[in-house]
Amino acid sequence: MNSTSPQSRFVPKPRTVLLAVLLAGVMLGLWNCNYPDTPAAGNSLPTTRLANVPANDTIAQYISLGVIPEITLFWLGDDPDGYVVAYRYRWIDFFSGQQRPQPYQTVLNLVSIGPTPLERMMLVKGNQNSIPNIYTFFATLTNQDGALISAIGDSLATGRTFAVPYKTGLVVGDSVAGADSVVHRSPTTGRFIFDSPADSNMHRFEVASIDNNGGIDPNPAYVNFWTLRSPAPLVTVTAPVVNTQISSGLSDTNQIAIRHATDRFPGLRIDFSAIDFSTDERVFSWAVDDTLDPASWSPWSENTFALVTASSFKPIVTGWHNFYVRAKNRWGVLSNIATYRHSTGQGSFKATIVAIDSVGYVPRILVINSAPPPSGAVPWGIDTTASRNFYSGILDAVGKAGKYDIWTVAGRPIASAFPSVITLGQYSTVILLMDQKLPAIGGAVYQFDPTRQTNMKRYLTAGGNLIFSGPVNYITAIQNFEPWSVEIFHTLPSPPPYPQRMNINLDFRGTRGHNGYPDLTIDPAKLPADSLGSLRQIIVNIPAGFGETIGWFNSRTSDPIWNNAPVGIRFLAPDPVPPARRTYSVVHFGFPLYYAEQASAIQAMQKALTDVHELP
Questions:
Q1: Do residues 499 and 345 make contact, with C-beta atoms less than 8 angstroms apart?
Q2: 297 vs 175, more confident
Q3: Which among 165, 256, 419, 500 has the fewest CB atoms less than 10 Å away?
Q4: Alpha helix (H) residue ranges in 366-477
Q5: Edge-to-edge strand ranges of the sheet holding 349-353
Q6: Domain 9-227 has CATH 2.60.40.10
Q7: What is the reported pTM?
């Protein structure tokens, strides 16, 4: 039955004495054109038989040599003075001498017709004595009940129970639910999977017919059979998928973790697999550190990998942690608990919880001056002391005095010139400076190589924020800049209709503010307009994805080609769904902020820090 189609109808299943079929809203009468409610001479009880099991069954006859605890059974029912309205069945399992009866399930003896057959039969939940009334309610639905039929179909299709408003009055607690389509394709057949945990297991299946007066077959049809212990899956764990960057300050055993998944941090991925010689159907559950507490285990899933956040650690601390996984096949047989042990023998994996994800963390800013100072070989650089004084003055002016540190790359050993991920993770926002003028042709030195990019990306993945100043030209400062600009800055890598570089004629005078940012004007005391060392070849940044313009190119000559082209860009993370943390935000000024007049630079930095939630 199409669950939303009012043309579908519930009709009785054909039987020997009576057959009722509802089609196109027309109800055909049952025996004598009506449903007997109280037989005149007492009620004859129905009978039941299993269609595919001989009557003289013996235990020996049903030993499962294939040790597969699954069987499909068929049954029939008859009633000499009425009709069968439902069947009820149950299992009784015997494990190591212990009897474990399962609760009865009652399936209505109804099928459906319509454009699409209903995949679920109807299981009755409620008072056993009201089964005939429930059956009558469904069997007598007419075309005028189209909306009700749709509601019933919707509930069965989604597995929700449907309270039955009898035409004779509501019986509290009575409802129907959709049976699992894998188990029931009709009311007279079932495909059953049962536990088989011991060396030998006996099972008894019983099914009894229920007639239109609520009479139940006192001699249910049954079958006894034995199964051997079901084979268990064999689970193995692959090494955790790590980001290997020795130079990042993390070894190949160590990873960054935060407590909750975000759109940038789905979790630490660990892959696993299982072998099961009897079935390909299995589900997995995993745990970290603790296997004894049931709450430590994840819900069962068909996924062959885990995405582990720090919330699964026991306790939630930096260091080594153990990963465990188990499988369950379609018959409920559990596998061994498998784990992965790193070659060091200290655990499955090592994870560092960055400081910004710690409880009670106090926000702090790190200013990284990545630009080289001026020298004979690097005339386009900026004096590090002048840069420090400029940005210290800005941060002090916006209320961040004593709440930031400055890291100067120049003069540090190459191996540790740029902060490690662990160091970056101590700061809620990084202000990255590549303030420089355009170097001479052939004199480019990459300030932002793949190792430094990896450190910054992993920091952003953990929820840090980035405010970026400069450079004049990506190509001279950021190695392999196109994927970085797309992924982090949310800009087009080669924005048509503009070239990648502009302002060949020394036309740049600053940016016009947008989205709450002020106008930024070049400070003539730092950069004369007619200087050949000017900010030549400013790159146009066309917003992409969720990027937004914060500054438009301000031409000295109102050049119609370049004027008002986007230069400054921001990407603001959406509000997170608790308890997840906010994903990183990025503000990119599009040119070296150092060359802007300080008063406007203070306003711009205040707005940027507000955007990344460093200021209220």
A1: no
A2: 297
A3: 165
A4: 384-397, 421-424, 450-461
A5: 254-257, 349-353, 319-321
A6: yes
A7: 0.67
